[in-house]
Design goal:
mainly alpha; Endonuclease III, domain 1; hydrolase; DNA binding; DNA repair; iron; class I DNA-(apurinic or apyrimidinic site) endonuclease activity
């Protein structure tokens, strides 16, 4: 065949061969070659001559951020040990420029609480767990005694815990001494601490672990402290702060749990102290974590009580979202505050300035 528009037989045959090659390539062949360095099913001469390359997934911004905070790619679940760590991932996904949630007037409210706490002594100030250890004992013994006081303090008033600790210290209170004491005698020493029988059992179980595994000392990290019988998150975080001088989290007891919910310091109301801790730590500056427990516990013991809170005497009575105080011709409290002064008072633990009245 000749003339214009005709195709030479040799060219036609080549085109036909190429078409057949394209037709016999199967989907499975394509899938199998995707992971190969040269992934095209019909490889060109140029591809054959290129140096082999290993194709890796392109790193995303999320991957780089995870790397920055020490989370290994591909083992994300293994790196999330509790619900608090999940907040880190939520923060990563937040768009740039997003405003971190904070409760209304929290700096003024906290300054007022500092003022009220400085004007009145609460049981926690003189009989709290940090006051229960023997100052003349060695540091290892003091750490153990602080842990024991925290274990006894659960659902127990500070006064009762303090008296029980005095009885235990008179019996030379060390982990080995607790182990050597008969269970019935130990229960009598603890009574009337709430659930004293269970706590006596937990004390001996924990003491056995401390003697065998820690040479009579206590663990120096949250994970191992919480693994001890009778020790919960609140106790562990407070123990780290008081015994090891390391702030690892906010100790949330019944007072902190109740007051932060009343003040609407949480984005959503909580039913469990651990839920409260996670939400509170998401916005409260870390340098205030240790202070806020001591402040709110004493505030809950003296003013913001569980039953019949003394709202009329509270400096936050007109700005507290849960106040029972009714304004009757009173002058309103100025909600404007010098943020710099509040932050400085927190770091230096100095007395706050007097409340401004309009």
């Amino acid at each position: 065949m000749s003339g214009k528009g005709s195709i030479p037989k040799t060219l036609s045959k080549k085109l036909s061969d190429k078409i057949r090659v394209g037709q016999i390539v199967k989907v499975q062949d394509i899938e199998d070659t995707l992971g190969a360095p040269l992934f095209s099913p019909v490889q060109t001469r140029q591809q054959h001559n290129t140096k082999k390359k290993v194709f890796e997934p392109v790193a995303t911004k999320r991957d780089s951020k995870l790397k920055d905070i020490g989370v290994k790619q591909g083992s994300l679940v293994d790196n999330i040990k509790d619900a608090a760590d999940k907040s880190v991932l939520n923060a990563i996904d937040q768009p740039k420029g997003s405003v971190k949630w904070e409760p209304d007037n929290w700096r003024l409210i906290l300054q007022n609480i500092r003022k009220m706490r400085s004007d009145a002594i609460a049981p926690v100030d003189t009989m709290g767990c940090h006051k229960c250890s023997d100052d003349e004992a060695d540091e290892k013994t003091q750490r153990f005694q602080k842990l024991v006081a925290l274990m006894l303090s659960s659902q127990t008033k500070d006064e009762v815990t303090f008296e029980a600790m005095q009885r235990l210290k008179s019996n030379h209170m060390t982990p080995q001494a607790i182990l050597d004491t008969e269970r019935s005698k130990l229960e009598e020493l603890l009574k009337p601490v709430s659930f004293y029988k269970n706590k006596a059992k937990y004390l001996q179980l924990a003491s056995k672990i401390l003697v065998e595994k820690y040479d009579g000392d206590i663990p120096s990290n949250i994970k191992e402290l919480e693994a001890l019988p009778g020790v919960g998150p609140k106790m562990a975080h407070i123990c780290m702060a008081t015994a090891w001088n390391e702030v690892t989290g906010i100790g949330v007891d019944v007072h902190v749990h109740r007051i932060t919910n009343r003040l609407k310091w949480l984005q959503k109301p909580t039913k469990e102290p651990e839920q409260t801790r996670i939400q509170l730590e998401s916005w409260l500056p870390r340098d205030m974590w240790q202070e806020v427990n001591h402040l709110l516990v004493g505030f809950g013991q003296t003013v913001c009580k569980a039953v019949r809170p003394n709202c009329a005497e509270c400096l936050n009575r007109e700005i507290c979202p849960s106040t029972e105080y009714k304004v009757k011709g009173k002058k309103k409290i100025d909600t404007e505050i010098d943020i710099k002064n509040v932050d400085e008072s927190a770091s230096k633990k100095s007395k706050p300035q007097k409340q401004k009245i309009m």
